[in-house]
Amino acid sequence: MSALSSLARVQAAAAGIAQPLATVRHCRLADAPLVLVPLKLAGEAAAPLAVMVGSGPGDPTLLAVPQPRNRDLRFAFAASLATIVLKHVETSRGAVEELPPGKDGDERIRYGDAPQLLVPNRGGVAFLRLMGRSTRFRSTEGQYAVDPAVPVLGRWLTWFADRFDHPGSSLLGATTELLRLHWATGQSSLEDGNLAALVGWIDPPDGLDGPSAAARAEDPVLCPPAGPTTDPTFDNEVLAPAIAAYDRSGGDPRAEERLRAVLADQLTPTWELMWRAVGLLRGLPEGASVAKRWERDRDAFTHYHQTFGEAYPQARRDAPVRAARRLHDLERAQDAYDAQRAFDDPLVMAEYRLGGQAFGGTVTDADPTRLDETGKRPKLRPLIRVATQDPVRLDEGTTVCNAARPGLKGKIVEIGDGTVLLELTGGMGRKLTPEPGAVPEVGDRVCFTSLTEGSFGVAKFPDREDTPWTHGGPPGEYAPTAEDAEEAWS
Asked: Is the peptide bond before 228 cis (omega within 30 degrees of 0)?
């Protein structure tokens, strides 16, 4: 936890209401995201109990499994869920965009939009991941055949769960994580995992403050858990008798309807909270770099959708080279995501200013037309001096960029008592005189940071044929030696 977020938590506790950690929204919100509120049977890792799903606050669909231990009912539930999710996937593609050919000359396309799933918390993400794993390998033929849509659903759920791990991706969102990214409450991080308590701190009902709303959220009757885990009291006193009554009735539709009503009562409060949270997030303007990250999401969605019929289901475990490549991609994405959030949002940049990775201040002196004539050709190298009260923990010679215009780059020449002398090296045009407005003038407020998008490039990984057999490559040919022959003879 940083100093600034700690201060925000203290202020939230003192004021009785959550404090902002961001001035813009750092995630994409689709016009009609598919909201899923899942529940699972207690003590059963992959036994779905119910899900409330829909793309609008007024039209939820409740899918329920009256006896979660019944395999046929579970996969009938999965087939019904597949119908909704796959329809959302197919109707969220938008128009096809033609992109310039790649380096190899191949034509490229990108869908104009992509699907978005929202769940209440990280537990919901884990449930979708587990459900994907339990359905994507199912056979559609033979004795235990399932509906053909079930393994398709499993592959898509696995893909969405994998994209959730990608920093900055908005294809699958855990609502509690999105809210915590933008607001700080006066409770612990563990308590922030409760969606009702978190929303209570950010937007308390009339007549209540944040702590009172959070205390009210602890009542499992007024605010049932947001899933996928249910409340033990509800399990013992309400759910178990309802399932037992269904079993005794031999599958009577009336008993099933009573069970569905019980589950609807548990899911409806969370459903309403989800859309309140979406409204709170929509109240923030979208960050400048969100559209760029959404393009990456659309690229990934387009590629997976286009190659879906040619590929096999995702493996249970990544091969060594694939795992290394995935880890490298996640590290690069995290590096770029941190920088983009800081460039978009002065509150996020303030974290780095407190940590010494950035400094802001006023330009007190500038030489915008200075030339460096030490080489064969003169180069435009303006000098500016910035007066700052920030703790600068960067070394002389460090490359920095302007937070407002990351293309404007410079190098720290000298760090004095409350001042930093910078030599600008790029982002001013290609002539020996800077473009108008490119070089900050005396009196301008500026902020420079060592953060950069993509501080390390794309790594090259070997093909499978060139990978040692110990790391997933093909086994080498066996050539017996003289010692092997002697051992075999003896």
From this structure: yes
